[in-house]
Amino acid sequence: VIKCRAAVAWAVGKPLSVEEVEVAPPKAGEVRIKIVATGICRTDEHLLEGCFPSADFPVIPGHEGAGIVESVGEGVTSVKPGDKVIPLCAPQCGECSFCLNPESNHCLMSHLSEPQNLLPDKTSRFTCKGKKIHHFLWVSTFAEYTVIPEYAVAKIDAAAPLDKVCLLGCGFSTGYGAAINTAKVKPGSTCAVFGLGGVGLSAVMGCKAAGASRIIAIDINKDKFAKARELGATDCINPQDFKKPIEEVITEMTGHGVDYSFEVIGRADTMNAALASCNMNTGVCVMIGELPSGSVVSIDPMLLLSGRTWKGTLVGGWRLRDSMPKLVSSYLEKKFNLDLLITHTMPIAKVNEGFELLRAGK
Ligand code: NAD
Ligand code: ZN
Ligand code: ZN
After folding, report:
1. Is the entire prediction scored with pTM above 0.85?
2. 8-26 pLDDT per residue, tens
3. Is ligand 1 within 6 A of the CB of residue 354?
4. Does 290 sit in the ligand 1 pocket, CB within 6 Å?
5. How is 75-143 classified by DSSP, letter by letter?
6. Cα–Cα distance for residue pair 186/260, rounded to 1 Å
7. pLDDT tens-place string over residues 195-217
8. Which domains are assigned to the chain?
């Protein structure tokens, strides 16, 4: 058993509490990882607010991390102690019917099918003050050590800087992959990205990498525009600067609407606006943002009747165990720049300040 620090969420709506926790050794098929760096994604905030589907408290959040294998359980063959790895918030068991479908990246072991608040044998490896602590998406990267099933771990290049590639664990891969894999943005096309947090900015990077000729970036926080431009946005607009609905503004700017739109906020009104902003014929709208579980969004069915496509993405459509080593190599080959997405770096003791910065749009 390892004693280490972790940020524990004891109850919905409470700040995280940095505690000493005990982390049990990995059982068969599991890997214990020393987490070196982790990002904060809005999805962690959804968890703290109690809006994430089938989550149990107390829990150790975090799902965008990178680390080094400390020890492995019986039967683990794909990684060994000392390997650099990225924990996967969407597993790839490689054996279920979804994994066997080459067009799918949604493993039947994922949280949407099977809650990942406990490890697959329905027990936890974390305790704190004598209490069982739940896992989050199996990865719980807000702990200095965590235990994860082998099929939710990807070995990466030993040269990878863990404080940068941790962003591949969720935010970057989601936004970039939504453009490349889910929308399949074509060269010369037009795109609109609603919401310029870490995930939305990554979607801007994906549209640019795919060769889009026009990328319209939309946010109510003007401070996001400089970085969006640096990453490839050609137009930056704030819906609050217009009297008419933003979908009308975008339709006028582009003639008939963009070819691809992305909702990267997690609101019903902006999901409708993003859908109506892509052209009524072949437009594709990708929903990335998450609404509180159980929410219902109403849309005018005419928006789809004329041919538009409305789809969602799970971590950008990547089969993460296969793709993660390649994404890390692409980063090391400077095919994209993660460093620009990093706004602040702080120790785990200041995790609540990190969330304050997220809430303040900084
Ligand atoms: P973030 O909070 O950093 O960014 C959201 C951005 O939206 C902010 O810049 C904010 O100013 C802007 N915004 C808020 N309200 C707006 C409005 N009414 N109009 C225009 N802009 C508005 O969040 P993030 O970490 O980038 O995550 C974005 C969303 O993606 C979240 O809902 C998160 O849960 C979700 N997400 C989904 C997946 C997936 O697999 N589908 C993965 C990661 C994150
Ligand atoms: Zn599977
Ligand atoms: Zn995330």
Report:
1. yes
2. 999 999 999 999 999 999 9
3. no
4. yes
5. T--S--TT-EEEE-SS---S-SHHHHSTT----TTSTTTS--SS-TTS--SEEETTEEEB-STTT-TTB
6. 9
7. 999 999 999 999 999 999 999 99
8. 2-169+319-360 (3.90.180.10), 175-314 (3.40.50.720)
